[in-house]
TrEMBL record:
Record-annotated Glycoside-hydrolase family GH114 TIM-barrel domain positions: 30-255
InterPro entries, per database record: Aldolase_TIM, GH, GH114_TIM-barrel
Protein name: Putative endo alpha-1,4 polygalactosaminidase
Xref: PANTHER family: ALPHA-1,4 POLYGALACTOSAMINIDASE, PUTATIVE (AFU_ORTHOLOGUE AFUA_3G07890)-RELATED, ALPHA-GALACTOSIDASE
Amino acid sequence: MRTIVNPLKYALLAAFFAMPTLAAPLPGASWDWQLSEAIAPPADIKVFDADPDNVTRDQIMELNKAGVYTICYVSVGTLENWRSDVNTFYDGNVFYYPVVGKAYGNWPGEFFLDIRQPNLRYVMQRRFMDCALKGFQAVEADNMDVYTNDSGFEISRQDTMRYIEQLASDAHALGLEIGQKNVPELTGELVAIMDFVITESCFADGWCGDVLPYIEAGKPVFNAEYTDTGPDFAAACAYGTKNKISMILKDRDLTSELETCP
């Protein structure tokens, strides 16, 4: 089994191409989250989360120049079969044992990954590098919850923590911040090493309180409620304002449609 990238080489490249770092957003910062189409950033937001395949470096640079903190979406727990590096996951010279597991429920083209395999870290490091080269300030590390799903692998909470700690270290080495994604049960362990948290439907599902340690630590909580669940968004906004949670209402596909709190 071979290591597919040189971490030091990528760290040096990151330093060479580094964009000016924006100040980390504070709790309550306005945000939007667009993953499924060409971006259309609202004019009045402070934080913007996008799929790196849907944006150009010039677009991210313009957002940075406007003072918008940009977050790069990376699925760290699933294979997405439309990504340009998909063949890497089936390369026997990279992964001695199969790394691709069962299909991920209702998400066509997505399959769980065996996050225990050492070289997966370096695949993700290369993706983080791509985020840095496009000028992003941070990474949204999606699908951290492989261990709670029927993935086809026997992955433990301890395996998950080890992997996330490695990812956090690698992101920070590249000058990127990194955010927890959901997994509220890991907040107590992650709040010290992650820079923010992104949550989905935490108000409708009743667990926003589980991530409030981020607010207490001066780190932002970005939550999206979804239109297809019919949430009481006025109540969500009241809760968000009281607790300094950045609350928005989005469609499930995360298009440019956006409703913010008053």
